[in-house]
Specification:
The chain is of the alpha/beta class. The protein has helices spanning 13-24, 36-41, 43-46, 55-59, 90-101, 109-118, 132-139, 141-144, and strands at 2-6, 28-30, 65-69, 82-85. The protein is globular and about 50 Å long. It starts with a strand and ends in a 9-residue tail after the last helix.
């Protein structure tokens, strides 16, 4: 069984993965080929583990597989998958993401923030506002409720 650990970048995904690992011994993988955060901070701190197989193979077992993603709902998500959806005020997440991207040259912060706000992507994190209908399709409408704001609110 797959449990998606889904969020917009800089919304607490890494912190949650550390908590899951330190308190409950839960190890997590990612939907991506490389986990850059685990490489930088250390696989043992994050509780990172390589995916034990394809998503289909992981889904077919009774074992829980926690998988980090920043992607929008896409073909990788099955209707029966579970999800933990982390939500942070989008303004705070974008500021944090732009600051991280401009760490080596703080003078690029404004340009980084602008690029994050205007970013458009067919897959991945997409635009700032995730539509409630997309999120509800991923984790179930009852789970999201009014706490999620998007372009269709």
């Amino acid at each position: 069984m797959i449990v998606w650990v889904a969020s917009f970048p800089r919304s607490g995904n890494t912190f949650l993965r550390i908590v899951l690992h330190r308190l409950y011994g839960v190890r997590t993988s990612t939907v991506y080929d490389v986990d850059g955060v685990a490489e930088r901070l250390g696989k043992d701190l994050i509780g990172f583990t390589d995916r034990p197989g394809s998503l289909s193979e992981m889904r077919a077992t009774d074992e829980l597989h926690f998988v980090k993603t920043h992607r929008q709902h896409d073909a990788d998500v099955d209707e029966d998958d579970r999800a933990i959806c982390l939500v942070r005020d989008g303004r705070d997440a974008l500021v944090s993401w732009a600051r991280q991207a401009s760490e080596e040259d703080p003078n690029t912060y404004r340009a980084e923030l602008r690029s994050k706000i205007l970013r458009v992507s067919a897959s991945g994190t997409g635009k700032l506002g995730i539509q409630r209908s997309q999120l509800a399709a991923t984790v179930g409408a009852a789970s999201c409720g009014p706490a999620v704001r998007g372009s269709d609110s």
